[in-house]
Write a structure and sequence with these properties.
This protein has one domain. It is 68% helix and 0% strand. The longest helix has 24 residues. The radius of gyration is 16 Å and the shape is elongated. The chain starts with a helix and ends in an 11-residue tail after the last helix. The relative contact order is 0.20.
């Protein structure tokens, strides 16, 4: 699979957002979290995961128009 630099950068950005959401959840849930903290962490993680899942790179073969 070949990706343009633009598509690769967008894909990398999606992965970075997901990783950041995981880091934020780790930090937010570190000190005796309550239901609110769990709910907010889940919502942020879910939103980042949906965005990463829905990312569809436009892949083209070499020589195609």
């Amino acid at each position: 699979m070949l990706l343009s630099r633009e598509v690769f950068d967008a894909w990398r950005d999606q992965i970075a957002l997901l990783a950041s959401a995981v880091d934020d959840a780790d930090q937010d849930l570190g000190n005796a979290p309550g239901l609110r903290e769990y709910t907010e962490a889940f919502q942020a993680l879910y939103a980042a995961a949906v965005a990463a899942k829905s990312f569809r790179p436009d892949v083209r073969a070499i020589g195609s128009d």
